[in-house]
Write a structure and sequence with these properties.
homodimer, 258 residues, alpha+beta, seven-stranded mixed beta sheet, three-stranded antiparallel beta sheet, 5 helices, DNA-binding
Chain lengths: 258, 258
DNA sequence: TGCATTCGTGTGCGCCAAACACTATCCTCG
DNA sequence: CGAGGATAGTGTTTGGCGCACACGAATGCA
């Protein structure tokens, strides 16, 4: 066995390169969008090679920043794609990430011709980038149900209707307003501010801000490692109830009893 | 931006190496165990460098096979650890995997001195291997609740009590026998065989075999990509109910209505 | 001042998860 | 061969929670 951890001198040419791809999501006009850059005839995700002295997540942030100036971006590792043939130009494994940004955080699209594309109508993408987006989406949908990532898509101050729309857009279905508000209330994850949003039309809405509910407490969420690299916001749990269509039952009973 | 996907000729020396580490779990004596190999004063996970023409999951399987002969191993990518300093011997990123094997599938421990260690009492481990195991554990616990991975830890034929013990051992708490059996029954994921297990003591138990319940149907589980690389068994969903201690509520309502 | 638009609020019902205890079957040993 | 030990197998009740559902309030504008 070649011991990964105790290797001697570097092989003179180790022919596997390591890259990062980042699927950056935001919500514009009540629709989920991904950030893409042009690549010849098709489009591609922001990407880059990992530098020798650079952690993976920083490489991902760098790739993102090169395409769109943004700060305070929530970002998480997704999956590492390592098919031998995924890149016809040699062996490049890709540590894929996905990121969530509030529209108001994105300052500008740096690289010319970079664009937001609605996920409902994506253009042709190079390599396996479509697959990366698809996977990021299912991950995002799942994560939405047991964490508070959703808030990453909103500005600091937001209305409950805006929050609800985030959930509706990502989950792809409408939610009941009263049930939604009751849950948010019970969870205690938002606090009203003194401000109101004066909308163009209709009654003004109360503005809220996000407030972490539980202490991190090392429950060991699905991504404890990634979490350690993230802003603390991510840690608070909205609470997991994952069910699918039809009867779905877990073998394991719910903890905590009645 | 350096375009990962359209790079020119190889850099003559690209100094990042890519390895795999594998946390292999099994259940022995009603306790969860991990397979470890000796490494100087400490212990380590089965690991290896990824070969230039080798997919990541195959590298992981190879690392596993070198330590313990086994076939039909369920294996999934876990996370890619890329801290710059994680390996004092140079930049090696590790695509960590975890695997589940039934004890009867492990033929033998190939490398001398490789051993099963109970997760309750692990020895000193090198590098970040302890962290990998911890993360694999939380992933396993979560996955247990919305997939049928648990069956990977059992032989082809098993009793319901054995199945229940798998869940109890991994979740670290006891389950109610009747509730457990009712759920398994409702899910329709096991079928009784004509055989019984003659135990040393007590009433003989009916033997069952695992049966995928739902068609794959591309619901988009948490790991659709990994799933595509897996035996079909993994796909059937036991059904997700993730709850934690205390009141936990999801913002998103349950689909399918009442 | 009326009309359009968005905000904000409570109840009732049905389902599902959890709690809970006893009989059946086999083996062993005296 | 009978008693005891061990494990297998089996239903009912109850309470909490998720879902469905409709209308008055506040504002801007014509």
């Amino acid at each position: 066995m070649v011991d990964t951890n105790q290797t001697g001198p570097l092989p003179s040419r180790y022919p596997i390169r390591v890259g990062v791809d980042v699927a950056v999501f935001t919500i514009r006009d009540s629709a989920l969008h991904v950030l893409l850059a042009p690549a010849d005839v098709a489009w591609r995700l922001p990407s880059d090679l990992v530098r020798p002295d650079e952690p993976l997540d920083l490489a991902a942030r760098r790739a993102l920043t090169e395409v769109a100036g943004a700060s305070d971006v929530w970002l998480e590792q997704l999956f590492t794609f390592g098919d031998v043939q995924r890149n016809p130009d040699g062996r490049v494994i890709s540590v894929a990430h996905y990121a969530l940004v509030a529209v108001d955080v994105v300052r500008e699209l740096g690289e010319r011709d970079a664009q937001w594309w609605p996920i409902a109508a994506l253009p042709q993408l190079i390599l396996d980038h479509r697959r990366i987006i698809d996977y990021a989406l299912t991950r995002l949908r799942n994560k939405l149900e047991y964490t508070t990532v959703g808030f990453q898509l909103l500005p600091q101050r937001f209305t409950l209707s805006e929050l609800q729309r985030v959930y509706e857009v990502i989950l792809g279905r409408t939610l009941d307003k009263r049930n939604f508000r009751r849950k948010v209330d019970v969870l205690g994850i938002v606090k009203p501010t003194r401000e109101q949003r004066v909308s163009v039309t209709g009654r003004p809405a109360q503005l809220y801000r996000f407030v972490a509910a539980e202490a991190p407490e090392a429950i060991g969420g699905p991504e404890p490692l990634a979490a350690a690299q993230q802003p603390s916001v991510q840690i608070a749990r909205i609470g997991p109830v994952l069910r699918r269509r039809g009867r779905v039952i877990s073998i394991a009973p719910v903890e905590g009893g009645r």
